[in-house]
């Protein structure tokens, strides 16, 4: 069961990193003219992944993962 949770956390971390990478490209890469609704959708997706993480590892740790990944990849 514990391995299952770690695997799920790893999967969600990868998805968060992928979304952040896409956001980085939209904000700073060749796709700088991305529409607001697309960027908003990406933020909503991050929120969904954060909600999933919260059920596994708790609110504070989930928020830490999302913020750390966002800051590392997007900024």
In words, what does this structure look like?
With 75 residues, the protein is mostly helical. Helix 1 runs antiparallel to helix 2 (36-57) and helix 2 runs antiparallel to helix 3 (59-73). The longest helix has 27 residues, at 2-28. It is built from 3 helices and no strands. The protein is elongated and about 45 Å long. It has one domain.
Any chance you could write out the topology, listing elements then pairs?
Blueprint: H1 2-28, H2 36-57, H3 59-73
Task: Kindly list the characteristics that best describe this protein.
single chain; 75 residues; mainly alpha; elongated
Task: Please give a quick description of this structure.
With 75 residues, this protein is an all-alpha fold. It contains 3 helices and no strands.
